[in-house]
């Protein structure tokens, strides 16, 4: 999680339209280098306008926006945009160009030459997890998820340090969306771009964001903080409401099982954990059931590793007949079990810790500047 | 006599070929010039809302002038030349071509235009590399209509001597002889058919992304 | 040029030119009669065809291609042919003009019907409307703007083309064009052309008004789909081209 210098700085930026509506109201916000800043809010809250002001698709009515310390209004629009990747809803691919040519767009505009641009496009195609044979296809021949990957590849083509993403995953189904989110995080681990991401989906924001900025209708920034802080200490009722009733559970999605105590699998009691020869958990066996068919009637188990979230652990513990979750190492071998109570305790601790995180926690302090009174 | 004299046709094969070529020498340039004039005007009409109504209105009014009258009115300016026939027909193609080009540009998906601009392409580059290619299917539909219409209208220019196959109508009318008229109508239809097929082929070649599009969507619906 | 316009103005405003059995008023009336009657007959032929193929979805390919074939028919050739075959009667004029108008109306009617979304039709059928009711209560009202566009396109084309009635010795405003051509009288040709254009625009606007009223009756929802008010040929391309 990059926590570098501010790359994008909004200084008292407002956007009013001639018809009297205010899209963005006196916004002061910084977006740090190498981090994902998620702008979230209901429709008409100005989050997309905020994003589009960064590449000057929209010009502010007042205030100043700086990119790497330079006022963007002094930069040539086209030049500015070529240095900023842009991914929009439904990918915004060119229907008349092949996937490869779509990805090569900016390199070609920049005058890289056809060969170099294509080589780069092929490299990116692989990087975003598409098969090489997709190169010659046209966008309409791809699924929504694949199109979105091409959109990301296209935005990355000229290796811009900044990436703007405007609800890029909102048009795909939840399963594909989760995949794309994982891929984005994986890519971000490698590339460390400064990403500004707009969404209306708070779960997506919590999942992706290093920092989340919540906007209210009328273009007001209500709170900007790390996901943990936001979930634990929403600034006001609006934010709390926006985060939803399962705010506490969402917080658990941010912490992992690592460090939660585990013990040996039970040798007595009604439920026994069955493992394979090489130590992989197979399922729970009910010792009170008929002996004959016992081997076949295992209740399935979903083993969890240290990287899984507390939320997943809680979910698994609720579903497990024994109230225990099976813990495994990276190879999938059983390391022990953890009880429902232990997970509850850990969850409670996490919550308490997040709720009073101000004790010297640097992000919370700087984030407070983002809050507009 | 009103039955078709089949022997007449092979006897005049050479004349008919010359007339057909002459026909296309008028209709072809008319569509070409029409396109050269219509596309820039349509781009202006597409971008400047205020001019849209004006340009479409003028081209619609041009269309209401009887073709014969238009040819005659051009006589003092361009004389009894092929230019008169071509200019007259060009004026008629404008209405269809401007309208279709504007519609084609209107139908370009906003996200594609937006993506191009956001990636730092200039307006001209966006027009040439994104908007016009994507508008091509609708523009081509207009070109097909304009071509068929021009081929059908050339015959009117026979009154000023450049009617191509239309000369056959005057000829047949004056001699009260239907065979040349039949031949003229049939050949005009044939020319239109061939030209239309050619345009379909050109469109197929120029729009590779559209191939199999319909098949895929219907397959998608069935799935 | 100025001279010409001045003479034209004189010609158009002269009382002598307007009166009498060969005056402008009579010619205008004849022209209107040829055009409107032809368009009416064409609509009676074309509307059922367009509605039928639009509703059933069958025969669309054939009908649309026949229509584009029909567009290629040289009207001068057709009128000459019918004249030579039938002799001196009104047949050549009406047959040629009807042949001109039918393809335009069929194409636009079909396009209007094809543009009605399948979901809407499905929903209507799902509520228990019969095929006939779906046609009249859903498809036709929604397709009406495009159908009206087709009729307006046809009428403009017919009015411009009705000039050729004079070619086979009939009246109408074409008389001025042909006689002017024969007499090398440019003012007469120009006068005829102006009158035809004005008539075409007036009828087009009038039908536009009628269309707006019909759409209003058919529900404001349909009106939202109305194409731009000024009809023009080729506005609707054969749907398979899009």
Automatic annotation (TrEMBL), chain A:
Its EC number is 7.6.2.9. It is an enzyme of class 7 (translocase). One of its GO terms (molecular function) is ATP binding. Residues 263-296, 349-373 are annotated as: Disordered. Residues 8-243 form the ABC transporter domain. The keyword ATP-binding applies. Coiled coil: none annotated. Keywords: ATP-binding, Nucleotide-binding, Transport. The keyword tRNA processing does not apply. It holds the Pfam family ABC_tran. Belongs to the ABC transporter superfamily. This is ABC-type quaternary amine transporter. It comes from Streptomyces coryli.
TrEMBL record, chain B:
GO terms for cellular component: plasma membrane. Gene3D superfamilies: MetI-like. It is a multi-pass membrane protein. It is found in: Cell membrane; Membrane. The chain crosses the membrane at residues 24-46, 53-74, 80-98, 134-161, 181-206. GO terms for biological process: glycine betaine transport; transmembrane transport. Belongs to the binding-protein-dependent transport system permease family. This is ABC transporter permease. It comes from Streptomyces coryli.
Automatic annotation (TrEMBL), chain C:
It is a multi-pass membrane protein. SUPFAM superfamilies: MetI-like. It comes from Streptomyces coryli. It comes from the Bacteria. PANTHER family: GLYCINE BETAINE/L-PROLINE TRANSPORT SYSTEM PERMEASE PROTEIN PROW (PTHR30177), POSSIBLE OSMOPROTECTANT (GLYCINE BETAINE_CARNITINE_CHOLINE_L-PROLINE) TRANSPORT INTEGRAL MEMBRANE PROTEIN ABC TRANSPORTER PROZ (PTHR30177:SF33). GO terms for cellular component: plasma membrane. Residues 28-207 form the ABC transmembrane type-1 domain. Belongs to the binding-protein-dependent transport system permease family. CDD domains: TM_PBP2. The keyword Transmembrane helix applies. It is found in: Cell membrane; Membrane. One of its GO terms (biological process) is transmembrane transport. The lineage of its organism: Bacteria, Bacillati, Actinomycetota, Actinomycetes, Kitasatosporales. InterPro entries: ABC_transp_perm/SBD, MetI-like, MetI-like_sf. The chain crosses the membrane at residues 34-53, 60-85, 91-111, 151-170, 190-214. Keywords: Membrane, Transmembrane, Transmembrane helix, Transport. This is ABC transporter permease.
